[in-house]
Amino acid sequence: MRVLTNLTFWVLIAIITAVLLGSWAPATAVKMEIIGKTFIDIIKLFIAPIIFLTIVLGIAGMDDLKKVGRIGVKSLLYFEIVSTVSLAAGVLMALLIQPGKIDKSTLQIQNASKYTSGAAKDFNWLEFFMNNFTLQVLLAAVVIGILLNYSRHRQKLIAVLGRLSKLVFTALKYVMYLAPLGAFGGMAYTVGKFGLHTLVPLAKLMGSVYLAMAIFVFLVLGAIMRYYKMSIWKFLQYIKEELLLVLGTSSSESALPSIMQKLEKMGCSKSVVGLVVPTGYSFNLDGTSIYLSMAVIFIAQLYDVHLSIGELLSIIGILMITSKGAAGVTGSGFIVLASTLTALHRIPVEGLAFLLGVDKFMSEARAITNIIGNGVATIVIAKSEKEFHPEAVPTDAA
């Protein structure tokens, strides 16, 4: 049977098994964390070489270096526009559904001091870069790719790097067979540690966040894809393995190497994939933006703080800057929330304590939306730069 050799099937089975284990034997499930963490750590080993090789080969193979700068500027502009739309969408959905209009005395309160203590710290771009290994690799690869473009040994070096790239992707292919174990470990730990019962008091918030992200993906990103004569449904079907892996591990990083490979196979040029995807993982966090804006409004509603139009616009403006620091570091989303609430001087920063128990269950939605957003961004930039050459992938609009 073909289904038994399908990786997606086994990842799904692993997630279901993990939820059952977490519900019935939480103590055992929590111990499964090491399996999920080990898988993500192995995947992280591939991130730097794949980003480096993809970018260097992409830039070294380009005849027009001006295109590199154009792709970079276009990408950042696209990220800023779509991120702002996602922030606004989060605020709008929170105002419409009002997830914070509940009795807070029924909610679990956890200690949020480790996040709120650093709340007043200003966002620092240099510190952000120094702590973001992906961006450091990206910059090094761009510089080396440009230098290689001018080298008289260009073709020989491209051939060597090309062979190395094939070896890395072949190794990744075999590591991905461990994906069901990674998904099992991540999901078992989450359910065992936090418990499905914690979802009940904040079911309205969770439902609102998942609904907002679904609307954003199918309406906003769907409309962008339709404009470029493509189908969001077919794209999601194409990357379903990556989406399930992200669902199980709660980490969009776990699928970064394979999503880059899939986008290349789909028809996006190596240079566009190499430049857009890693940059997007730091600057194009659509899911995180929606969650952060909804969380701020949720806490305001919880404390009956009425916000004016000006204050709502301030929230979007502050989050446009602070949300950039939410990339790739566990718990950083809470630090960003604490910084935003501190800057506003209107909403009690202690409200974060109500979110801690349920946050882990919403991280899946954030990570999935982030990876879809970066996939769409890569396709948009590739199409606009005429760097999209589809082969046999079913992505044309239905």
Automatic annotation (TrEMBL):
The chain crosses the membrane at residues 7-25, 45-65, 77-97, 133-150, 171-189, 209-228, 290-309, 315-338. PROSITE patterns: NA_DICARBOXYL_SYMP_2. It is found in: Membrane. The keyword Transmembrane applies. The keyword Transmembrane applies. Keywords: Membrane, Symport, Transmembrane, Transmembrane helix, Transport. Its main location: membrane. It comes from the Bacteria. Pfam families: SDF. It is a multi-pass membrane protein. This is Cation:dicarboxylase symporter family transporter. It comes from Chitinophaga hostae.
